[in-house]
Design goal:
3-stranded antiparallel sheet; 5-stranded mixed sheet; 11% helix; 138 residues; 1 helix; mainly beta
Length: 138
């Protein structure tokens, strides 16, 4: 009878214990919203909300074809894109032509060293959350 009680009580004990898995990480853009139009000559505010990320998680902002806009710690919650410069490795270029672009944010669960110089010995984290919006630069 004692072993029957233990067999029946075990699932109850498992259900009351804390989950060994952390809360899932989430990320979403607050601004811009889907379909926003930005004046290509003015600074633009990029705002986001996130949850479940650790202190060493980083955010990478991309514009369309993989160019990096910024690489920030999540708690900032905002990036002001002032100079319209995007980077591919160590090379930066200004966005000069109007058009449709996709803005993407990705959270890495560790470093996100994405330039060539200085990244030789860095092991990047993996992407744990992302969001994207289509915008128009005019």
């Amino acid at each position: 009878m004692k072993s029957l009680f233990l067999l029946l009580a075990a699932p109850i004990l498992l259900l009351t214990c804390a989950s060994p898995w952390p809360d899932p990480v989430s990320f979403s853009f607050v601004e811009p919203t889907e379909g926003s139009e930005w004046d290509i000559t003015s600074p633009q505010s990029i705002q986001w909300e996130s949850s479940g990320a650790g202190d060493d998680y980083t955010l990478v902002l991309w514009l369309s074809d993989g160019f990096i806009i910024g690489n920030y710690f999540l708690e900032d919650g905002q990036f002001i894109w002032e100079d319209r410069t995007v980077y591919n490795g160590d090379i930066g270029k200004r966005i000069e032509r109007p058009g449709n672009y996709t803005l993407k944010g990705q959270i890495y669960d560790g470093p996100a060293c994405l330039t060539g110089e200085g990244c030789e010995n860095v092991v990047n984290g993996k992407i744990v959350a992302e969001d994207e919006v289509d915008i128009r630069l005019k």
